[in-house]
Design brief:
54% helix, 4 strands, 283 residues, 2 domains, alpha+beta, 13 helices
């Protein structure tokens, strides 16, 4: 049976009071332009150092950046400590940084907390996974929902989960883990940005079959500011360009399925439907 860790009560109370480095770390609500620009520079410095194989420089830029108290830098730190990238893997340290990022308004931090708590390597801690899954708005499935009175109260939340059967806890831990991973890691494809394309992708998760059904919607063409090459505009509607949205979601979905072992006893009729919209905003 998944663990309902009693220490979660303190974690949830604190929350109420208040695998890889990728562009996903930049896909968050915008801060003010200047703060957003500086945070982006710090994150880029860390990422470029990692790409160059220079962990000493990456850690230096990270530690310097954390002094600025910027949510995006905290989110990056959480990811590095969770995965052990250039630092010693430390899930508890990752939790602290993710919490700072969430307090700073980054929804992806809640999704990464839900995904991390659901992972067997970290417990799993099902109560924490489901709690943070709610904060990240990742899953709205009646089978995995608590009552309205318990939804915002940590004590009632944990108490209600304690009445669930082990098979339901395991199924919901799996569903929340998979969907939170997808939500946290799906990013706008760089190729689509280069060609001024947007679009939407519908995704259906069938947990009893451990599979996703993915469907691409209509692509949206945006003005390509500063583009002089007519071919870039002429050929941006081709499948190798518009198909990058479907591929971006599919790649993350496959990683999510590989991350979590599928438990037995998941009701056959359960499905989770969501849609990812990729758009471009010129500022």
């Amino acid at each position: 049976m998944p663990d309902l860790n009693p220490l979660l009560l303190r974690r949830l109370a604190a929350a109420c009071a208040a695998i890889c480095i990728s562009p996903a770390l930049l896909a968050a609500p915008l801060e003010d332009p200047e703060t957003d620009r500086i945070a982006g520079q710090i994150v880029d410095s860390v990422r470029l150092s990692i790409a160059a194989g220079n962990c000493d420089a990456a850690v230096y830029h990270l530690k310097s950046g954390l002094k600025s108290n910027r949510p995006k830098v905290a989110l990056l730190a959480g990811t590095m400590y969770e995965t052990g990238l250039c630092v010693k893997r430390d899930w508890e340290a990752a939790v602290g940084y993710y919490a700072l990022a969430y307090d700073g308004g980054l929804m992806k931090a809640a999704q990464r907390l839900a995904a991390g708590y659901a992972e067997p390597a970290n417990g799993p801690d099902t109560a924490a996974a489901l709690w943070w899954g709610r904060q990240g708005h990742g899953v709205r499935l009646a089978y995995c929902e608590v009552g309205q009175d318990a939804a915002a109260d940590p004590d009632r939340f944990v108490a209600e989960l304690g009445t669930w059967q082990a098979s339901r806890l395991a199924a919901c831990n799996y569903i929340v883990g998979v969907m939170s991973t997808v939500g946290a890691e799906v990013v706008f494809p760089e190729l689509a940005g280069d060609f001024g394309l947007g679009g939407n992708v519908s995704l259906r998760f069938v947990p009893s079959q451990a599979k996703f059904e993915i469907k691409m919607g209509e692509a949206q063409e945006y003005a390509m500011l500063g583009v002089l090459d007519g071919d870039a505009v002429r050929f941006r509607h081709t499948k190798d360009k518009t198909g990058v949205f479907e591929k971006a979601v599919s790649d993350v979905a496959n990683r999510a399925l590989a991350r979590y072992p599928q438990p037995k006893g998941i009701p056959a009729g359960l499905t989770v439907d969501t849609r990812y919209t990729f758009s471009i905003q010129h500022r």
